[in-house]
Amino acid sequence: MEAYEIFAKVYDSIMDQTLYDRWTDFSLRHLPKTSQKNKLLELACGTGIQSLYFAEAGFDVTGLDLSADMLKIAENRASSAQKQIVFKQGNMLDLSQVGKHDFVTCYSDSLCYMQDEGDVGDVFKEVYQVLNDGGVFIFDVHSTYQTDEHYPGFSYHENADDFAMLWDTYADTAPHSIVHELTFFLQDEDGRFTRYDEVHEERTYDILTYDILLEQAGFKSFRVYADFEDKEPEKDSLRWFFVAEK
């Protein structure tokens, strides 16, 4: 059973829906304004909610995700909304099949799931190759404050009629890394509940590391902001936003 197969079933229920508005607003503030319909590639698109927001904002959207289960939900969502969105199953470490794009986004700290900084750098190189000249890459990651101070000991429990979830987070051994332990109880057709367990590992790096990796990938400039706002990161910022230009 793939990592997100069970998670996909309840992901939209537990996700803070207001975040999609904030990611959209941030993107629209930092992507160049043009008269043409720009091609946008959304990495780690999940169940397609953000892809739909981008399509409604006028972009020609392609969504990429590892999880076939999440993409099925995404395709149904786009069809119901009567939006033409291309969804592809794939790994952001290999973007050779997605074509060229004007913009690329990678939100919801999805880059933090990369195994190490070498993989993060490889993703940056892949993104650079699929961006048109002058194209923009926007991504967000956990800050080191978030992984080191905020998340360890974090606990979130959700109860609904047909599922329950326990989400606990601990510090991991590598610097600025965390482990999310998730337990789901999902109701079967016969009314009984089945338990599923998952482990999600995330890791971030300091801003200088991201700076070096972006430069090594070829990006000519980048800016960094914090917590969905157009402000510089502070000591206790939780989420960093990078806007890089090819």
From TrEMBL:
* Biological processes annotated in GO: methylation
Record's keyword annotation contains Transport: no
Give yes or no: UniProt keyword Oxidoreductase. no
Instruction: State which residue ranges cross the membrane.
Output: none
Q: Which keywords does this Swiss-Prot/TrEMBL entry list?
A: Methyltransferase, Transferase
Family matches, as InterPro entries: Methyltransf_25 (IPR041698), SAM-dependent_MTases_sf (IPR029063)
Select a single GO molecular function from the record's annotations and give it.
methyltransferase activity
UniProt domain Methyltransferase: residue ranges? 41-135
Superkingdom of source? Bacteria
Q: Which Pfam families match?
A: Methyltransf_25
Q: Which named protein is this?
A: Class I SAM-dependent methyltransferase
- To which species is this protein native? Streptococcus chenjunshii
